[in-house]
Amino acid sequence: MHPRQKTALVTGASRGIGAAIARRLARDGFAVAVNYAASVRDADAIVSEIERADGHAFAVQADLADAGDTERMFDAVSDRFSQLDVVVHNAGIQLLGAHAEMDGVALDQLVAVNLTAAFRVLSRAARQVSDGGRILALSSGTTAVLPPRYGVYAATKAGVDVLIAVLAKELRGRGVTANAIAPGPVATDLYLKGKTEADLEATAARTPLGRLGQPDDIAGAIAFLAGPGGEWVNGQTILVNGGLI
Ligand code: NDP
């Protein structure tokens, strides 16, 4: 009998870091549910790329700021996969502003997408992930660096760190681990938006490895935690930033 293929749900997998995680987990043998909010073409392209490489994937639309969409996404995953082994909650947005400037709309959006949605996804993952599975979330190195204008964004990600640490304890007895990865700057739409060449060069120069992070750098860390070697890491937020801090 063939062993059952392992399965993973990656949120925000149409672009950037999430797309790299979906590709990497598929390469490591997982069937992957590729969540997106709006970028249907990008999500379909990731699914096609995985299938061309003889992997298994499907795309599932859900705006995770919406509670009903989040439930629908997990229902779609349980319709397609007999078990769910790994959830990677990667979807997120970044809006910046000093305390004296940031308006209530940006504040509400950040909290809705980065914190409330994270709680809902982790909460449903806690119920749906099979015993022995893995729950992972994307935090941010800004919770350690604390740059001006990143206050609300970093606060939502610090919230993710706390949720993950508590969740790991609540999962006691099931062999399910929960961890967060906190990337430094990674060359994606989210990070590159509004930056000049000089900004990017300055950040690369501050990093001991002399470059910006790439989505595959983060996917490698996620693959380790999702794979057999990551079993003993639990309840942690791990900085993956080329040594920037
Ligand atoms: P991108 O902006 O490149 O991609 C964001 C992804 O999240 C897209 O797939 C997008 O879907 C999805 N998404 C956004 N909002 C929602 C929503 N409401 N519901 C469902 N999906 C949504 O971001 P990155 O790849 O750079 O970031 C991924 C994660 O990593 C984020 O949580 C971010 O905070 C974190 N991070 C990023 C860093 C960086 O430097 N890039 C550094 C540290 C942390 P769609 O395409 O459909 O809009």
UniProtKB/TrEMBL annotation:
Gene3D superfamilies named in the record: NAD(P)-binding Rossmann-like Domain
InterPro entries hit by this protein: KR_dom, NAD(P)-bd_dom_sf, Sc_DH/Rdtase_CS, SDR_fam
Instruction: Note the Pfam families from the entry.
Output: adh_short_C2
Q: Which UniProt keywords apply?
A: Oxidoreductase
Q: Name one GO molecular function term.
A: oxidoreductase activity, acting on CH-OH group of donors
User: Is Endoplasmic reticulum among the key words of this record?
Assistant: no
Q: Which residue ranges does the record assign to the Ketoreductase domain?
A: 6-184
Give the signal peptide range.
none
> Could you confirm whether the keyword Iron appears in this record?
no
What the entry lists under PANTHER family is as follows:
NADPH-DEPENDENT ALDEHYDE REDUCTASE-LIKE PROTEIN, CHLOROPLASTIC-RELATED, RE15974P
Query: Family per UniProt?
Result: Belongs to the short-chain dehydrogenases/reductases (SDR) family.
What is this protein identified as?
A: 3-oxoacyl-[acyl-carrier protein] reductase
In its UniProt entry, the species of origin is given as Faunimonas pinastri
